[in-house]
């Protein structure tokens, strides 16, 4: 979260990508929360990450990441999940 607060999003995205294959649901939630915070500050970057990695993202991560998106975008992501 310190990186996000400093508007340094690349480290967060790298960590989230490394956690894609993790078996623990709490890690999926944590990654989703971090992605949601990135989205609040840089929506285009976060959406690009989500679209690029969509097939590998656990549904928990997606749901947490899109929680604050406008309804139309949220539905678009949920429809593909």
> What is the mean pLDDT?
90
Distance between the termini: 26 Å
Could you estimate the helical fraction of the residues in percent? Answer: over 70%
| Oligomer status | single chain
What profile does the largest beta sheet have?
A: none
Whole-number total of structural domains: 1
**Helical segment count:** 6
Q: SSE order, as H and E?
A: HHHHHH
Rg estimate, integer Å: 11 Å
Task: Give the strand tally.
Answer: 0
Which structural class best describes the helix and strand composition? Answer: mainly alpha
Strand coverage percent: under 5%
Unreliable stretches: none
- The general outline is globular
3D architecture notes:
The structure is a single chain. The chain is built from six helices and no strands. It has helices spanning 2-5, 10-18, 25-41, 43-52, 59-65, 71-80. The chain has 81 residues and is mainly alpha-helical. Helix 3 runs antiparallel to helix 4. The protein has one domain (2-80). 70% of the residues lie in helices and 0% in strands.
Summarize the structure.
The protein has 81 residues and is mainly α. The protein has helices at residues 2-5, 10-18, 25-41, 43-52, 59-65, 71-80.
């Amino acid at each position: 979260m310190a990186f996000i607060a400093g508007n340094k999003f690349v480290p967060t995205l790298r960590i989230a990508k490394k956690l894609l294959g993790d078996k623990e649901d709490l890690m999926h939630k944590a990654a989703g929360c971090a992605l949601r915070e990135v989205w609040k500050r840089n929506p285009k970057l976060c959406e690009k990450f989500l679209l690029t990695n969509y097939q590998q993202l656990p549904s928990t991560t997606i749901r947490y990441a899109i929680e604050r998106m406008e309804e139309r975008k949220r539905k678009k992501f949920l429809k593909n999940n």
